[in-house]
Amino acid sequence: MAKKEIVLTPDGYKKLNDELNFLVTKRRKEIAERIKDSRQFGELAENPEYNDAKDEQALIENRITQLNELLSLAKVIENDKVKTNKVSLGSNVRLKDLETDEEFDYLIVGSVEADPTNHRISNESPVGQAIMGRKKGEVVKVEAPHGCIEYQIIQIKK
Asked: Is residue 26 located within the same domain as residue 60?
């Protein structure tokens, strides 16, 4: 089965790549040093410092593997190809809740970068799915646990 392509903004790609570089160049060395130092505390089977360091090493190696896989599957959204005539990945969108008249600004990103508390929503989220491919002025309905919410697309920009 083919792996699913991971869509990232240029900033998202850089953030993941920077994290990978940090883990490989700095954290691996720090953990190796901790393991080396903890060996002096006696029998390894009963050495909590050694066991903690080995557990942390396993977590870091797992994250390195995960980041390598994500980056190998990454497709970076090119800012100059983001259109402003309809909502797409990389679009900055202003939505208006038609019931409350409250407005929200969101950046549409892939699921790996989604962070709703920082106004980054996934194209796969209910709101993201509802607005993808839509144009300024259109009204969309989003099913939410407490009922249907109607949003109007107020603005689309890069």
From this structure: yes
